[in-house]
Write a structure and sequence with these properties.
The chain is α+β, with helices and mostly antiparallel strands. It folds into two domains: 41-181, Creatinase/prolidase N-terminal domain (Creatine Amidinohydrolase, Chain A, domain 1), CATH 3.40.350; 186-435, Alpha-Beta Complex (Creatine Amidinohydrolase), CATH 3.90.230.10. It has 13 helices and 17 strands. The chain has helices at residues 2-17, 22-39, 41-48, 64-67, 120-131, 152-161, 164-167, 174-182, 186-206, 219-232, 255-261, 305-323, 331-344; strands spanning 52-58, 80-88, 93-99, 109-110, 136-138, 170-172, 242-246, 273-278, 281-282, 285-286, 289-295, 349-351, 354-355, 388-400, 405-418, 421-424, 433-435. It has a six-stranded mixed beta sheet with strand order 4-3-2-1-5-6, with helices on both faces. A hairpin with a 2-residue loop joins strand 9 (281-282) and strand 10. Helix 1 (2-17) runs antiparallel to helix 9, helix 3 (41-48) packs antiparallel against helix 8 (174-182) and helix 12 (305-323) runs antiparallel to helix 13. The longest helix has 21 residues, at 186-206. The N and C termini lie close together (9 Å).
Length: 437
């Protein structure tokens, strides 16, 4: 027992050491944003065929896209902040301007002198007329909320300020906004590996006898231990974790029960199959992870074979699903092929995988929802792109003969899709975690 405590102490200290001090986080965040502006955004604008992009927000009511563009020392927009990105591919021109009183960090230069032009909207019109873009992208989108950040008031004032010849150039920047949100750079993926590793280590500790004493510890106590651990490490979480239990003598609950009502304050007992849903936020990126653990009973030294066999079916479903990842395929197409093959192999699958990155439930390709297994209109028709990250979230229902009931193996891991194919960002769970006591 002393050896186990020592090992967990070492793991805990190592995990904390991976987290940067605030000042170093800020430097890294600004470095990542600068890299994205210079090496990613021009290409995205070319692909979307938008040569001017307006991102407009007022303080404390920020467009979700703008939040990902602000420097580390800008916790919010200031007054009304108007960002103007101009791209002339033929002239190899790329400008990052702000119609604001201040430079927006070191990446975006202020282009408004209020003493010379008191009206902010009039100054924006001048900037547009000086460059004469063919298209002016704005963040309006019916189906992708993160790409729909231009609020009604700013939209109305923008249209009122623009002369007719410029207003006619306004187009939805949906494709560009989604591309900006969903695409990950090499620098971000280096950071992402650390995020997922830290997430896994927190779950490892939560699902251990350092936190759980069977017959005493409740599921809610584990949940709040996770929340406190995140706070103590100087991190944040973008959703409240859940911990639920499946037992031999209890009927299988619905999927929605596990993720909403859950087992709020249930005492954990030997023989319980535990499941958690947990994620963290760090330097502008998010994780989302679901794993399983089993509390050994008296005399047991390892997880029973029938549970490991059930878990292997979850891993098999993951392999089937990610095996169909191919650039250009839609989420609905990949979902359909995966479910068909899974059922043909005797599985009882459900797939509800979502984009992951700047937001936990991000924009990009959607692969089903837990209550939409025949496909998702529009969002599921969005094609898969390279350099994107997903929460590979799914489950399969398995009958356990020793328990004479069904259990649900519910898994979720961060996965990256690039030109070399699919890979997990920091591996995946391949065996149920045993909890000894």
């Amino acid at each position: 027992m002393k050896i186990l405590i020592f090992l967990f102490l070492i793991v805990s200290l190592t995990t904390i050491a991976q987290i940067l001090p605030e000042r170093e986080r800020a430097l890294l965040k600004d470095e990542i944003i600068a890299d994205r502006f210079e090496n990613l955004l021009p290409e995205l604008m070319d692909n979307a065929q938008i040569d001017m992009w307006l991102v407009i927000s007022r303080e404390y009511n920020e467009d979700p896209v703008m939040r990902t563009m602000l420097p580390a020392t800008w916790l919010n927009a200031r007054r009304r902040t108007i960002l103007v990105f101009y791209r002339n591919k033929n002239g190899n021109i790329f400008e990052k301007l702000a119609v604001a009183r201040y430079d927006v960090g070191e990446n975006i230069t202020s282009a408004w002198d209020k003493e010379k032009q008191p009206d902010q909207w009039a100054r924006l019109v001048e900037i547009i007329e000086e460059r004469n873009p063919s298209t002016i992208g704005i963040n309006i989108s019916e189906h992708f909320g993160i790409a729909d950040g231009l609020v009604a008031t700013d939209y109305a004032e923008l249209k009122e300020a623009l002369p007719a010849n410029l207003e006619s150039k306004l187009v939805s920047a949906e494709k560009l906004a989604i591309g900006w949100i969903e695409t990950r750079t090499q620098k971000e993926m280096e950071l992402y590996h650390t995020l997922v590793e830290v997430t896994h280590k927190i779950i490892d500790e939560a699902f251990s006898n350092e936190v759980i004493t069977p017959g005493k510890t409740t599921t809610d106590e584990v949940v709040w231990w996770m929340r406190q651990k995140v706070t103590d490490m100087g991190l944040e979480t973008w959703f409240h974790p859940t911990v639920d239990i499946q037992r031999s003598e209890e009927v299988l609950r619905s999927h929605i029960y596990s993720f909403t009502k859950g087992d709020k304050d249930k005492v954990i007992l030997p023989g319980d199959l535990l499941h958690c849903d947990f994620g963290i936020t760090y330097i502008g990126l998010n994780t989302d992870c679901q794993q399983h653990a089993y509390v050994l009973t008296n005399g047991e030294t390892k997880v029973p074979g029938f549970l490991e066999e059930a878990f292997a079916e979850g891993n098999r479903l993951q392999d089937i699903f990610t095996g169909y990842f191919e650039a250009g395929r839609t989420g609905n197409e990949i979902l359909s092929k995966s479910l068909k093959q899974g059922r043909a192999e005797g599985l009882r699958p459900a797939i509800y995988t979502h984009p992951l990155g700047n937001y936990g439930h991000s924009s990009g390709t959607t692969f089903g929802m837990w209550d939409s297994q025949r496909g998702v209109p529009v969002n599921g028709d969005y094609p898969l792109h390279y350099n994107t990250v997903y929460a590979i979230e799914l489950n399969t229902t398995v009958t356990l003969e020793p328990w004479k009931k069904d259990v649900r193996i519910m898994l979720e891991e961060a996965g990256f899709y690039g030109k070399d194919g699919f890979r997990y960002v920091n591996g995946r769970q391949e065996a149920i975690k045993p909890i000894s006591w």
